From TrEMBL:
Keyword ATP-binding: no
Taxonomic path: Bacteria, Bacillati, Bacillota, Clostridia, Halanaerobiales
InterPro entries: MethylDNA_cys_MeTrfase_DNA-bd, MethylDNA_cys_MeTrfase_DNAb, MethylG_MeTrfase_N, MGMT, MGMT_N_sf, WH-like_DNA-bd_sf
Protein name: Methylated-DNA--protein-cysteine methyltransferase
Record-linked Pfam families: DNA_binding_1, Methyltransf_1N
Protein task: Involved in the cellular defense against the biological effects of O6-methylguanine (O6-MeG) and O4-methylthymine (O4-MeT) in DNA. Repairs the methylated nucleobase in DNA by stoichiometrically transferring the methyl group to a cysteine residue in the enzyme. This is a suicide reaction: the enzyme is irreversibly inactivated.
UniProt-annotated location(s): Cytoplasm
Domain Methylguanine DNA methyltransferase ribonuclease-like: 7-67
Length: 153
C-alpha cells in the first residue's frame, strides 16, 4: 500500500510528510509538490503540530512515528527525542548517553539517516566546539531552527 502524503509550507521551505497507515514515516524538504496529496488523520495532526511549532506555540511533538534503521540508529533517534526544545547536545554527548562513548561520528551518520527531521530533532545536535556540524537539509535550515527555538523559549 502506498503511503499517504501531505505538504506543508514552512518558513524553511516546502515539507512533504508521509504516513504509513497511522504513523509518520518521513518528513522531507522539497522544492515542489511531487505527489498527489492524500491526507489521513495523523497527517492532518502533523500539519497542525508543525504549524504550532513554527508559531512558537509547540515545544514537543505528540505524533505516532515509525522509525526503521539499525539498532544503533534507532538508539540514537530515541536519544534525540529526549533533547528538549531550545537545547543542544554535542555528537559526543549523544554517543555517551547511548553508552557508546567513542561513536560520535556514527551518531553524526545516524543523524544524517533520520527520515523524520524536526519531529526527531537532529537539528539539536552540534559539534563539541559549538560549531553546527552538518544538516542534510542544509545548514541554513539547522541554523534557522535553532534560532527559532532559542527565540521562543
Amino acid at each position: 500500500m502506498k503511503n499517504k502524503i501531505v505538504y506543508y509550507d514552512s518558513p524553511v521551505g516546502l515539507v512533504e510528510i508521509q504516513a504509513d497507515k497511522d504513523k509518520i514515516v518521513s518528513l522531507d524538504f522539497k522544492e515542489e509538490k511531487c505527489d498527489q496529496e492524500a491526507a489521513n488523520s495523523v497527517l492532518l495532526t502533523a500539519k497542525k503540530q508543525l504549524d504550532q511549532y513554527f508559531k512558537g506555540e509547540r515545544k514537543v511533538f505528540e505524533l505516532p512515528i515509525k522509525i526503521e534503521g539499525t539498532e544503533f540508529q534507532e538508539s540514537v533517534w530515541q536519544q534525540l527525542l529526549k533533547i528538549s526544545y531550545g537545547n543542544t547536545f554535542a555528537y559526543k554527548e549523544v554517543a555517551e548517553a547511548i553508552g557508546n562513548n567513542k561513536a560520535y561520528r556514527a551518531v553524526g551518520n545516524a543523524n544524517n539517516k533520520n527520515r523524520i527531521p524536526i519531529i526527531i530533532p537532529c537539528h539539536r545536535v552540534t559539534a563539541s566546539n559549538g560549531d553546527l556540524g552538518g544538516y542534510g537539509a542544509g545548514i541554513w535550515r539547522k541554523k534557522w531552527l535553532l534560532q527559532h527555538e532559542k527565540d521562543n523559549l
